[in-house]
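Saturday, quiet lab. Running sequence design on the structure tokens for the scaffold JK sent over.
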């Protein structure tokens, strides 16, 4: 367990960018279920999903990130010249090299003195990114950091994959963090278990298995599931079991570390994998529904690493600009990796959404 306590950093603003393109499970993807409306209804009830937002062909995570960063700078009245750190967490970068953070710096006019780094993380990526930003700022080297988390997972899912295609949406979220001596302590717990990597992975297309005609050709893998090795693979049952195994002790442990009572926490914001997983975690922790948001996945789909900040925008909206909030954020998924943090967020300068 990697546990960190870091003071002196505040979260000042958040902007979430989502695609305008909306896909309906009931209509546009009914062919995956041979028009079986009963099966579609069961799927909607189980995963809590009817519509999702996915990018148009040719749109990338960088294309979503740029308007999020521009709007963040505008709404927080931040001079780009004062930003000295830009981190981007993504698993769907535009290129193998250079990284998206450097490209984003060039697009948005941030200074050349800005330190830029990419992180290859998925559903735990926002919490890991917050930890990295807090750590670099606490060292005294950086004063103002923009953390971007964004993925276009819909681009790596087979169109003929009944199991995965209905699940994923796309998004990019930009968060402004500022050094502030009076900011309260943030607590982070970070974990990983690489032995479970094959439960959620993209086997082909990297340097171990470069893309070729054979591994880029979709093959039948079960009823209604046709995908190539260069597309996303997931073992749903393994992910479900993993999420319950790690999230219950993670939340209980964080409450112990902070000394917080569950009743004083304004929200427990989990990675929005699907409603079934979130509801199971909530019930086993005996948390009331009103403090565990689960509606984001219904509107936008599973947004991977962007789902936690996306939920902060979608569920809380202007509330986060009006008063302090005590929040516990927890992400889990690909890797396996999981990360939890307890943060006290003062009234933000902005918490808004932009459509791309």
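Result came back. Writing it out in full:
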């Amino acid at each position: 367990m990697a546990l960190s306590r870091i003071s002196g950093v505040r979260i000042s603003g958040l902007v979430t960018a989502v695609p305008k393109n909306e896909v309906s499970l009931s209509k546009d993807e009914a062919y995956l279920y041979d028009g079986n409306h009963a099966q579609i209804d069961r799927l909607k009830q189980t995963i809590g999903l009817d519509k999702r937002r996915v990018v148009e062909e040719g749109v990338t995570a960088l294309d979503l990130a740029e308007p999020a960063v521009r709007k963040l700078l505008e709404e927080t009245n931040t001079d780009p010249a004062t930003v000295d750190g830009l981190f981007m967490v993504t698993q769907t970068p535009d290129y193998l090299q250079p990284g998206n953070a450097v490209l984003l710096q060039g697009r948005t006019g941030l200074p050349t003195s800005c330190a830029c780094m990419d992180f290859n993380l998925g559903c735990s990526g926002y919490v890991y990114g917050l930890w990295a930003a807090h750590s670099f700022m606490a060292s005294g080297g950086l004063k103002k950091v923009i953390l971007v988390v964004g993925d276009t997972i819909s681009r790596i899912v087979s169109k003929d994959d009944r199991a995965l295609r209905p699940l994923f949406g796309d998004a990019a979220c930009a968060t402004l963090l500022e050094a502030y001596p009076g900011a309260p302590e943030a607590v982070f717990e970070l974990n990983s278990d690489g032995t479970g990597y094959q439960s959620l992975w993209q086997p082909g297309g990297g340097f171990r298995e470069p893309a070729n005609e054979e591994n880029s050709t979709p093959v039948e893998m079960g009823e209604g599931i046709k995908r190539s090795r260069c597309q996303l693979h997931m073992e749903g049952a393994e992910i479900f079991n993993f999420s319950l195994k790690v999230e219950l002790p993670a939340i209980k442990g964080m409450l112990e570390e902070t000394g917080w009572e569950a009743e004083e926490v304004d929200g427990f914001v989990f990675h929005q994998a699907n409603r079934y997983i979130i509801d199971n975690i909530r019930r086993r922790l005996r948390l009331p529904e009103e403090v565990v948001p689960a509606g984001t996945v219904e509107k936008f789909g599973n947004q991977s690493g962007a789902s936690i900040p996306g939920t902060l925008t979608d569920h809380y909206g202007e509330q986060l600009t009006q008063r302090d909030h005590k929040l516990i954020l927890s992400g889990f998924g690909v890797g396996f990796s999981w990360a939890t943090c307890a943060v006290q967020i003062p009234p933000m300068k902005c918490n808004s959404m932009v459509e791309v």
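Notes for JK: The first strand starts at residue 2 and ends at 6. The radius of gyration is 19 Å. Ask whether to fix the surface positions before the next round.
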